[in-house]
Design a protein that fits this description.
The complex is a heterodimer.
Chain A (H helix, E strand, L loop, with lengths): L5 H21 L7 H12 L9 H36 L11 H19 L6 H26 E2 L2 E2 L1 H25 L2 H12 L7 H28 L3 H6 L4 H23 L5 H13 L3 H25 L8 H20 L5
Antiparallel strand pairs in A: 1-2
Chain B lengths: L1 E10 L2 E11 L4 E5 L6 H9 L5 E6 L2 E2 L5 H7 E4 L11 H7 L8 H14 L15 H15 L9 E5 L8 H16 L2 E6 L3 H7 L2 E6 L2 E6 L1 H4 L2 H8 L4 E4 L6 E4 L1
Parallel strand pairs in B: 3-8, 3-9, 6-7, 7-8
Antiparallel strand pairs in B: 1-2, 1-4, 4-5, 9-10, 11-12
The chains are: A mainly alpha, B alpha/beta.
C-alpha cells in the first residue's frame, strides 16, 4: 500500500531539504565550502566559539544567503501546501493559485498597495509598507478564491472547465487593473510592479522571513483539523456533510488559508506559479491522496522544490540571475500541459 | 424511528413533494418506489437536510437539526446514486473515510473495515485504486463506507440507512445479496429506506413499500396490499399480472 511509504518519503525529503539548504547557503558570487558555510552559520548564533570568521562572510550570510534560503524554503512550503489544500477544496488536481487567478488577484492587490502607498508616502521598504502590501495581496486572494469557487460550483461539484475559464477571465481582469496602475505610476513604482510579476527572491530580508514563517505556522497548525474533513470532501459536498463535516466552515477556512499563503508569498516574492500544482501531484504519486500525509509532505517537497528552482535561477547563467518565477514557469507549464493530456478523458 | 412529517417542497413554483409523510422504524426495510421524477431523490435530500422544505424530519422524536453533526452521522448514513470521487484512493482508504469521526484504534478500524468490505462482498478489491473499479464495484465500496460510518451502536435508539438506487449498478447476485444483508441489519436495529426500480425486489424483500407519484404518497403498506393491477396501471402505466410466489408467498409482478 502506498501509505506504507510515508516514513521513507518523509526521511528522504528531510535529508534532501537539509542538503539543498546547505548548497543554497554555499553558492553565490562569493562561494563558500560546505564547512565554511556551516562555520559562518555558527558564527551568527554563537559568535564566541567562531570568533575567527571573516566579517564579510558573516555579513553575506546574515543579510543575503540565510534570509534568501529561509524565505525560499518557507514560500515553497506555503505555496505547495496551499496548492494541495486548494486542490482538495476544488476537488480537482488541476487547481493551482496561479491557474485559477488567485495569484493575479493577489498581485493586483499588491500593486494597488504599492501604488497607494506611493501616493500617500514615498515608497520605501519599511515594515508598515510590507505589511500593507501583504494585507492587500491577501484581500485580493480571498476575493478571487471566493469568486472562482462560486462561479465554478454546481450542484454536482466543481466544474473544471468553468474553473479554468474563470481563472483566465480573472487573470485578464487583474492584468488590466495592473496595467492601469502601471500607466499612472512613476518609475520607481513601475519597477516594483514589474519585479512583482516576474517573481524573484533577490530582495529577501528578515521581515519577509518572519511574515512567511508566521503564515507557515498557521498553515501547518491547520493541517490536522482539515486533513480528514478534506478527505471526506473529495467524496462530494453532500457526502462530507452526511459524514458530519461542517462543510461551510471547512470551505471558508481553506479559502482564507490559501489566500493568506498566496497573498503573503506574492507580497514578498511576487508571482511564482506551478509550485502548488506540481508538488502535490508528485506526492500523490508517491503516497496517495490521503490529506493527512499529502499536506505535510507537500510542504516539505515544496520547500525542496523552490530551493532547487532558485539554485537553478542563480547558477544557470552566472553571473546573471534569472527571476525564479521564470524558472518555475519553464518547469511548471510543460508539466501542466502533461497533466492536461493525461486527464483530458475525465474532463468534458 | 426516523420520520418525515408534512413535507412540502416546491421548485420553480412547481410542487415537487406534497404533504409527504414517511416513517422508518429501525427494525424494518422500507422500499421507496415510483416512476422517474416522482420525487424520490428530493425526499431523500429533504431527509438528509440537503434541501430545505416546509415540514419536519425527526430522528428518535428529536428534530434532525437538533442533533450535532457527528451524532447525526453516527445514526444516519446516506448512499448517493453516484459519487464524484476522482482522486486515486484505494478502496480501503475510501471505506476508511467513513471512519473519520471514530476514535477507535488503528487495529480496530482495520477489523471494522475488513468486516464491512466483506459484507459488501468487495474485500478482494481492498487494495485496488477506487477510480479503476467498475460501476458496481464502486457502488459496493460506497456501501461498505456507509456501513463503516454507522458501525458503532449508539447508546440508545436505532441507526438508519438511506440508499438511493443501491442496486442500479449491481449484478443480479449482488442485488439479492445486498437486500438480504439489509434484512439482516434490520434485526440489529439498522433500518433501511431504499429507492428501488425493480418492483419484484421491493415485493420480495421490503417489510413495507411506499409508492410515490407526482410528489405524493399514493400508497404504502405491505407489498401484497400495495401492488395491485390498478396501482401499477395508474402509477407506472403498466398492464401487469400479479401472481403469488408458489412457495414463499410474496407477490410477483409479471409484465
Amino acid at each position: 500500500m502506498k501509505i506504507s511509504r510515508v516514513p521513507v518519503v518523509f526521511a528522504i525529503l528531510s535529508v534532501s531539504l537539509l542538503a539543498i539548504m546547505l548548497f543554497s547557503l554555499m553558492i553565490g558570487p562569493l562561494s563558500f565550502s560546505p564547512w565554511q558555510s556551516l562555520q559562518t552559520l555558527g558564527a551568527l548564533f554563537v559568535p564566541e566559539t567562531f570568533s575567527d570568521i571573516n566579517a564579510t562572510h558573516i555579513m553575506v550570510m546574515q543579510n543575503l544567503r540565510l534570509p534568501r534560503t529561509l524565505l525560499c524554503l518557507l514560500v515553497g512550503a506555503n505555496l505547495a501546501l496551499c496548492g494541495a489544500m486548494m486542490q482538495g477544496l476544488f476537488r480537482n488536481a488541476l487547481a493551482d493559485p496561479a491557474i485559477i487567478g488567485v495569484s493575479s488577484g493577489a498581485a493586483l492587490g499588491a500593486a494597488g498597495a504599492i501604488f497607494l502607498s506611493s501616493l500617500v508616502l514615498p515608497f520605501s521598504s519599511t515594515i508598515s509598507n510590507e505589511l500593507l502590501v501583504a494585507l492587500f495581496a491577501f484581500l485580493g486572494g480571498v476575493v478571487v478564491t471566493f469568486l472562482v469557487l462560486n462561479i465554478a460550483s454546481t450542484r454536482h461539484g466543481t466544474s473544471v472547465s468553468v474553473m479554468l475559464l474563470a481563472g483566465i477571465a480573472i487573470t485578464a481582469l487583474a492584468g488590466a487593473g495592473i496595467a492601469i496602475l502601471s500607466y499612472f505610476a512613476d518609475d520607481t513604482v513601475l519597477r516594483n510592479i514589474v519585479a512583482w510579476q516576474l517573481g524573484s527572491l533577490v530582495g529577501a530580508n528578515w521581515i519577509m522571513v518572519g511574515l512567511c514563517a508566521l503564515v507557515s505556522m498557521v498553515l501547518f497548525a491547520f493541517i490536522k483539523p482539515v486533513a480528514k474533513p478534506l478527505n471526506a470532501l473529495l467524496l462530494g459536498e453532500s457526502e462530507a456533510r452526511h459524514l458530519g463535516v461542517n462543510v461551510q466552515w471547512l470551505k471558508n477556512t481553506l479559502v482564507v488559508l490559501t489566500a493568506l499563503a498566496v497573498g503573503v508569498s506574492v507580497a514578498c516574492v511576487g508571482l511564482i506559479g506551478f509550485v502548488g500544482l506540481v508538488v502535490p501531484h508528485l506526492i500523490r504519486l508517491l503516497v496517495g491522496p490521503d490529506h493527512r500525509y499529502l499536506l505535510p509532505l507537500s510542504g516539505l517537497l515544496g520547500a525542496c522544490f523552490l530551493l532547487l528552482a532558485d539554485l537553478l535561477a542563480r547558477t544557470l547563467f552566472m553571473p546573471i540571475e534569472l527571476p525564479v518565477g521564470v524558472v518555475m514557469g519553464c518547469i511548471g507549464a510543460p508539466f501542466f500541459i502533461f497533466l492536461l493530456m493525461q486527464q483530458k478523458q475525465y474532463m468534458v | 424511528m426516523l420520520q418525515a412529517v408534512d413535507v412540502n417542497l416546491t421548485r420553480d413554483d412547481k410542487a415537487v413533494l406534497t404533504e409527504v409523510n414517511v416513517a422508518l422504524n429501525c427494525n424494518e426495510v422500507v422500499a421507496l418506489v415510483g416512476p422517474n421524477g416522482a420525487g424520490k431523490s428530493s425526499l431523500f435530500n429533504v431527509i438528509s437536510g440537503e434541501l430545505l422544505s416546509s415540514g419536519q424530519v425527526f430522528i428518535e422524536q428529536l428534530l434532525r437539526d437538533s442533533w450535532s453533526p457527528p451524532e447525526l452521522a453516527q445514526r444516519l448514513a446516506i448512499l448517493p446514486q453516484s459519487s464524484q470521487l476522482n482522486f486515486p484512493f484505494s478502496a480501503f482508504e475510501v471505506v476508511n473515510i467513513g471512519r473519520m469521526n471514530k476514535t477507535t484504534s488503528h487495529l480496530e478500524n482495520e477489523r471494522v473495515i475488513s468486516q464491512v468490505m466483506s459484507w459488501a462482498d468487495i474485500q478482494d478489491k481492498a487494495q485496488n485504486i477506487y477510480t479503476h473499479l467498475s460501476g458496481g464495484e464502486k457502488q459496493r465500496v460506497q456501501l461498505a463506507r456507509i456501513f463503516a460510518q454507522i458501525w458503532e451502536k449508539p447508546s440508545q435508539g436505532g441507526r438508519y440507512l438511506l440508499l438511493d438506487e443501491p442496486t442500479a449498478a449491481l449484478d443480479l447476485y449482488h442485488q439479492h445479496q445486498l437486500l438480504n444483508l439489509l434484512k439482516e441489519l434490520a434485526q440489529q436495529q439498522i433500518g433501511s429506506l431504499v429507492v428501488l426500480h425493480d418492483l419484484n425486489l421491493a415485493a420480495r424483500y421490503a417489510d413495507r413499500v411506499v409508492v410515490l407519484d407526482h410528489g405524493k404518497v399514493v400508497a404504502q403498506g405491505a407489498s401484497n396490499e400495495v401492488f395491485t393491477q390498478s396501482l401499477l396501471k395508474s402509477v407506472f402505466s403498466l398492464e401487469c399480472e400479479i401472481i403469488t410466489h408458489p412457495t414463499a408467498g410474496y407477490p410477483v409482478i409479471l409484465c
